Amino acid sequence: MQVTETLSEGLKHEFKISVPASDLDAKAGAKLVDLKDKVRLNGFRPGKVPVTHLKKVYGRSVMAETIDQTIRDTNTQLFSERGFKLATEPKITMPSEKDEVEELLNGKSDLTYTVAIEVVPAIALADFKTFQVEKPVADVSDSDVDEAIKRIADSNRTYAAKGEDAKAASGDRVTINFKGTINGEAFEGGAGEGIQVVIGSNTFIPGFEEQLIGIGANETRTLKVSFPKNYMSEKLAGQPAEFETTATLIEAPQDLAIDDEFAKTLGLESLDKLKEAARERLTAEYAGATRQRVKRALLDRLDEAHRFEAPPSLVEEEFNLMWNSVKAEMDSAGKTFADEDTTEEKAREEYRKIADRRVRLGLVLSEIGEKNKITVTDDEVGRAVIERARQMPGREKEVWDYYRNNAQALAQLRAPIYEDKVVDFILELANVTEKKVSREDLYKDDEEKTAA
Fold first, then answer.
1. What is the DSSP string of 238-283?
2. Number of Cβ within a 10 Å radius of residue 303
3. What is the CATH number of the domain that holds 88?
4. How far apart are CA 364 and CA 371, in angstroms?
5. Does one domain contain both 247 and 339?
6. Angle CA(82)–CA(7)–CA(371) in degrees, nearest 5?
7. Where is it found, in Gene Ontology cellular component terms (predicted)?
8. Rounded percentage of the chain residues whose pLDDT exceeds 90
């Protein structure tokens, strides 16, 4: 076997490999001998078929299998000897001319092919004991608990009918019948009866609820609105519409005493128990926010400490996934890059940087996990599947079957578990210091990123 490196450019390598026909013939011959005791041919007793006859019948298919196996074995040996860790599947180029293929399958010519690869660079891991990580921690205050309970009360508020001549005001609940048209034509989903609208809840199309202010029971109005550009229905998105609307009932929100009786309507023994449950939930939410902040800071530190060339094909693949998603969202929202105060060229540049960072961090986390024998057990994945199933009451079996029969979906569950275990490993070594912050400061980064 002859191996000649024809390209060595950064992380890209290409080799020309030649395997003598005699080697292929010997391997194919061994396969035919092995086949002798397995095939049944008319006119021959079991195990007595001459190899020469087998070669006439199965020679070409056996040679094809031999060539395929030889390429796999040769490539594996080549990559192992040179310490290559592949970033993508190798690209193999075989003879394509009909005469060349015939000669090869008939065992009359050497096997000559090229293999192009892209490798993962050697990654020198940083000393994680030198990492300084700040952990923002917010305590749950009594006012936080009170606000949470108030939100619960607001969502459980009752309404009572207003007087006969009363008019709807902001905060009131109005029961309506409506028929919508676009350019005078009714459209699918544009009509409804007995629909309850809380004015100011912003659950209807922008501008719809505000036009109900001042309406009385049994009064009919024509409401003029426009569907948002990012409306779920492409046919309606951005379209101006009119809704002939009749109010059938006007109700005002009733004062709700937040006391033991209210707690009992929620299935709890007392107001103290409700406050205890609210505090526990807020504590868990704050802990989740702290975790996200710490993880983000750690990933930033890993990014700074590991600067190397990421495999271009992986970066391109990651970029295309993100870019296609961004374009789809913008098209759905009817937005342009100008609306985002940028240009397509600048946006592409920014997303390429993000793709490069994601690929490098993925390789670093993988290297850390591999060197420290960090793994994800089947039990951990199973618990993740159960948690997903719990999030969809009534469809648990459907969720379970989906993951059981979908290896790719299971891999998508396994990946974040693995990432979190690697992050926890690093945090055990790093110097983590707690810093008390307010709730506002704890969520500030998330709110700023959302706004951006």
1. T-EEEEEEEEEEEEEEPP---SHHHHHHTT-S-HHHHHHHHHHHHH
2. 15
3. 3.30.70.1050
4. 11
5. no
6. 30
7. cytoplasm
8. 71
Domain boundary among 235, 255, 275: 255
Please, which pLDDT band fits residue 450 given cuts at 50, 70 and 90? very low
The predicted pLDDT at position 87 comes to 93
Contacts of 158 (CB under 8 A, 6+ apart): 253, 254, 256
Same domain, yes or no: 307 and 222: no
Given a cut of 70, whether residue 449 has pLDDT beyond it is: no
Range of the domain at 165: 158-255
Residue 156 phi, psi dihedral angles, 5° rounding: -110, 15
Residue-level pLDDT at 42: 65
For residues 426 and 381, state if they share a domain: yes
Cβ contacts of 117 within 8 Å, gap of 6 or more: 12, 13, 14, 79, 84, 86, 88, 90, 91
Question: Which position has the token pair 């108030």?
Answer: 150
Q: Kindly tell me if the per-residue pLDDT of 222 is higher than 60.
A: yes
Q: Quickly count: other Cβ atoms within 10 Å of residue 10's Cβ.
A: 11
Residue 171 three-state SS: coil
CA distance 294 to 424: 10
Which pLDDT score is estimated for 48?
63
CATH number, domain at 165? 3.10.50.40
Token pair in block for residue 125: 């891991």
- Residues 307-349 have pLDDT tens digits of 999 999 999 999 999 999 999 888 877 778 888 889 999 999 9
Distances (CA, A) of 45 to 24, 36, 40, 450: 28, 11, 8, 77
Instruction: Work out the average pLDDT over 147-168.
Output: 91
| CATH number, domain with residue 310 | 1.10.3120.10
